[in-house]
Amino acid sequence: MMTHSKEHSNCNGQGGHQHHDHSHKNGLSLAFWLNLFFSVVELIGGIFTNSTAIIADAFHDFMDAGAIGLAILMEKISGHKRTATFSYGYKRFSLLSALILSVFLLSGSVAMIIAAYNSFINPKEVHSVGMLWIALLGLAVNGFAFLRIKKGGHGHHHHGHSHGGHNHNSESIMLHLLEDVLGWAAVLIGSVVIYYTGWNWIDGVLATGIALFIGFNATKNLISTLKVMLQSVPEDINLDELQNELQKIDGVTDIHDVHVWTMDGSYNVGSLHVVINNSKARSEQDVMKKVIRLMRKLNIQHPTVQIETNKNRCQFVNC
């Protein structure tokens, strides 16, 4: 007997946080336009000031704008209700943009390291005063975008889901804007040092440092996104604890074939087989309710339970 939890009224996690969703989306599109516009400003500024760090950051910001644009598109898609083709809905699409974003950033950091290497081989004079002004502008633009997204994203954390459906996206974008802020702070300090010492090689060192930092974080994000895609057990679920707690339920003789995975890092799906020692319909219903309630309590939003009695235990190899 297969049975499924019926409490799907709020399956897609909508309703409670539409207001925060709205401010979150506004924050994202603002960050998109700011980054797009600013990357053009940077590119021109980088060429005029002869700074590799600034040109590298321009490409980096341009990629960032593309990735945020992609994230906005994917989040629109991932909010759609389930269809005959995608029976779980479109939640996984937001993972796709987190994946593309990480690959973007990784390739960007490699390009920046190559540019920095070239600047060491062919040193050129850097206009430190221009660098200083662009760095100040960069700090202001990215700091503003970061705070806007943080404000929109945080409303999410307080509603319903453990960390909102935008988990991977918002985190990778916020992380990225924060890196930009730190990167610009470094460029700012670097420009002051170059102004007073004339050490143009500092520009290349900055570009390399920014690139390595981005590469490291993008790799981390890529790994966590791939884990979700490969259906690993979510980090907030303890399978042993789940099994032990379920075994304690009155009337349960065995729990097996337990699977737990996550759709997008926050919406968890679980299925298992429960063997009970009493085949009366009422006690079956009773045990079932308890099992589903416990699964929900232990952070499985979408539980599926198969009930078996000692007499008709499943004979399949993989049970």
Structural account:
By secondary structure, this protein is of the alpha+beta class. It has 2 domains: 212 residues, Alpha-lytic protease prodomain-like (Up-down Bundle); 75 residues, Cation efflux protein, cytoplasmic domain (Alpha-Beta Plaits, 2-Layer Sandwich), CATH 3.30.70.1350. The protein is built from 8 helices and 4 strands; from the N terminus they run βαααααααββαβ. It has a 4-stranded mixed β-sheet, with helices on one face. α4 runs antiparallel to α5. It is elongated and about 85 Å long.
Chain-wise SSE layout:
Blueprint: E1 2-4, H1 18-49, H2 52-78, H3 93-121, H4 128-157, H5 167-197, H6 201-229, H7 239-247, E2 252-262, E3 268-276, H8 281-297, E4 302-309
Parallel strand pairs: 3-4
Antiparallel strand pairs: 1-4, 2-3
Alpha-carbon distance between the termini? 14 Å
Strand content: 5-15%
* CATH-defined superfamily of the largest domain: Cation efflux protein transmembrane domain
The general outline is elongated
The arrangement of helices and strands along the chain is EHHHHHHHEEHE
Measured as a percent range, the helix fraction is 55-70%
Count of DSSP E strands?
4
Query: Any idea what the CATH architecture of the largest domain is?
Result: Up-down Bundle
Largest pleated sheet? 4 strands, mixed
Structural class designation: alpha+beta
Give the strand order of the largest sheet, numbering strands 1, 2, ... along the chain: 1-4-3-2
Mean pLDDT: 80
Count of distinct structural domains: 2
Radius of gyration: 25 Å
Question: Which segments are poorly predicted (pLDDT under 50) over 5 or more consecutive residues?
Answer: 5-17, 155-166
CATH level-3 fold name of the largest domain:
Alpha-lytic protease prodomain-like
